[in-house]
Amino acid sequence: MKYITIVKKNEKKQYCPFCHEKKEHMLQEGKYFFVIPARAPYSKDHILIIPKRHVNTLLTLSHAELLEMHKLIDIRAKKLHTKYK
After folding, report:
1. Which of 25, 29, 58, 85 is the most exposed place for a label (fewest CB within 10 A)?
2. How many domains does the chain have?
3. What counts of helices (H) and strands (E) characterise the chain?
């Protein structure tokens, strides 16, 4: 199923697909974000870094949230570069 199909289905229900994410599905969790594998991946090893609070744009993230997001991106990028030299 394509991601846009999932989004459109959830918009009709006004449902957030990430609010009740199970811990066992998470690859990593921080104070402000969690990392999960994409359910409708566009490529192999596609992941999502999801904020724990609803935000419309990255501009609304606090400094602490931005720091954690960048840390998670760095960790996950290093894992990918180790796996795919």
Report:
1. 85
2. 1
3. 2, 3
Q: Which domain does 27 fall in, by range?
A: 18-83
pLDDT 10s digits, 42-56: 888 999 999 999 888
Is residue 79 a part of any domain in this protein?
A: yes
Domain harbouring 72, CATH code: 3.30.428.10
Q: Which two structure tokens, joined as six digits, stand for 7?
A: 């989004």
Q: Are 47 and 40 in contact (CB under 8 A)?
A: no
How many angstroms separate the CA atoms of 13 and 33, rounded?
Answer: 24
The whole-angstrom separation of Cα 74 and Cα 18 is 22
The predicted-structure confidence for 12-34, as pLDDT tens digits, reads as follows: 666 788 888 999 999 999 999 99
Predicted TM-score of the model (pTM): 0.78
What is residue 30's DSSP assignment? -
